[in-house]
Structures are given as structure tokens and as C-alpha cells.
Specification:
This protein is α/β, with parallel strands linked by helices and 223 residues long. The protein has helices at 40-49, 51-67, 109-119, 121-134, 137-141, 180-193, 201-210, 214-222, and strands at residues 2-4, 7-16, 22-26, 29-35, 76-79, 82-90, 94-97, 101-106, 149-153, 160-163, 168-172. The strands form three sheets. Strands 1-2-4-3 form a four-stranded mixed sheet. Strands 5-6-8-7 form a four-stranded mixed sheet, covered by helices on one side. Strands 9-11-10 form a three-stranded mixed sheet, covered by helices on one side. The longest helix has 17 residues, at 51-67. The protein is globular and about 60 Å long.
Length: 223
């Protein structure tokens, strides 16, 4: 156990056949991967030398938890940046929405949340296609005549991904929680990848030309 400024961290040490020692922070847990030959006291000396860094990383993720609009449990569920109270009950799957509340019924909470996302799939897809059609000229200007196929998927660690060979763009269900300009930015971002596959300076110049305020949307998605 490690205590830093009143925060108690669980310490997990894994010794492997590696040359260097690595450390990462997952919430209030410190995970260390160290070479097999390293003595325990050497590992703990290394952890002690990283106390300030561990605390900074912990603070960052706590801030991120508090400020992200992405659903992480609890009663608050955001739809395009608007806050709704999520009220759950056990029963057959059903979703109903009032001005500021979402009533979700299911026999299993996790399955119910997935069902809730699916409930908004057509709305999210419709709005994403509106932005797609609005910005198709980006592709036309560079001689790309095909219209990409848009799909909504449960993506891990990404807001969107494009498959240029298959002429397909996948958008994350989780973008549902953020304001419309965030979805707009992701659609433009993925469209631009059909022209430039990397994140070069030119890539972002094209995005900025078509969406001058894209950085504001991007900052919201970083939380």
C-alpha cells in the first residue's frame, strides 16, 4: 500500500523477463512491471521516486471523470450535451423520455444501458449522415466520388474510424453524449482521412479550412 497526500494506492508488482521497469496508474492502483532480477527494495525505491508523478496522473484522471460527458454509471446521462436524469427499474426492456428524465427498464442493468444506446442509434446515424452530406464536397474537391457508408458502433478508445478500402466510416455510440459540433468534427475528421491517412499538419489544415472552430470540439472530446 502506498499513501500520497491522503490517497491510498494499492500497489501491484509484476516481475517479468524484461530489461526495464515500467509504472502505470489505474485510478487508485499503481501497477509496476519490473525485471525478474530486481530486488523488492529497488522496486519500491523506484515507486517512491515517482510519487509526484503518480499523484499528478491520479489528479488528471479524477478531473477527467468529473468533467467527461461520457456515461460512467450514476444518474446523469447526456444526450448531445444536454443532461438527463436516468431512472432505472427492473422489468421488460423499455425506454421512455420526458423533458429532463430518461426512464429505462430492463432485467439487467448492463444490458439495459446497451439497449439505451441502441435506442438512440437511428437519431445518431441520421444526424451523422446530415454532416456527411454537408461535407461531401471535401472528397469531391480531391476527386473522390464515392459516398462513404456510415455505421454506428461500440468503439473502444476511438470516436470514429474510417476504412478507405471498404469506403466505410464507423462512429462511436459514445459521441451521443457530446454537443453536435463534436459529432460534426468527427465526421469531418474521418472524411479527411480519405484524402490524407495520417495526422500531419496538412491534415489539420484541411479540417480547419472546413471547420474553423474544430479545436473547441476536439478539446471537449479529450475530457
Amino acid at each position: 500500500m502506498l499513501e500520497i497526500k491522503g490517497i491510498r494506492f494499492e500497489v501491484e508488482i509484476n516481475q517479468k523477463r524484461i530489461k526495464n521497469i515500467y509504472l502505470r496508474v489505474e485510478d487508485d492502483k499503481v501497477i509496476v512491471s519490473a525485471p525478474k532480477y530486481m530486488q523488492t527494495y529497488e522496486i519500491y525505491n523506484f515507486i517512491e521516486s515517482k510519487r509526484d508523478w503518480i499523484y499528478k496522473v491520479y489528479q488528471y484522471y479524477q478531473y477527467k471523470k468529473l468533467n467527461t460527458l461520457k456515461y460512467n454509471g450514476g444518474e446523469s446521462f447526456y444526450i448531445f450535451g444536454e443532461k438527463y436524469k436516468l431512472i432505472y427499474s427492473i422489468g421488460n426492456k423499455n425506454v421512455s423520455i420526458t423533458d429532463k428524465s430518461i426512464y429505462l427498464t430492463s432485467k439487467n442493468f448492463d444490458d439495459g444501458i446497451k439497449y439505451l444506446y441502441k435506442h438512440f442509434e437511428s437519431l445518431l446515424l441520421e444526424r451523422a449522415n446530415e454532416y456527411l452530406n454537408k461535407y461531401l464536397y471535401i472528397l469531391r474537391d480531391y476527386g473522390y466520388d464515392n459516398v462513404p457508408d456510415l455505421n454506428i458502433k461500440f468503439l473502444k478508445g476511438k470516436w470514429g474510424v474510417c476504412y478507405t478500402r471498404n469506403n466505410k466510416i464507423n462512429i462511436s455510440y459514445y459521441i451521443l453524449h457530446y454537443p453536435n459540433e463534436c459529432l460534426e468534427y468527427i465526421v469531418i475528421h474521418e472524411l479527411t482521412h480519405f484524402i490524407i491517412p495520417n495526422h500531419s499538419k496538412r491534415f489539420y489544415e484541411i479540417i480547419e479550412h472546413n471547420m474553423p472552430n474544430y479545436k473547441l470540439a476536439n478539446e471537449k472530446l479529450k475530457l
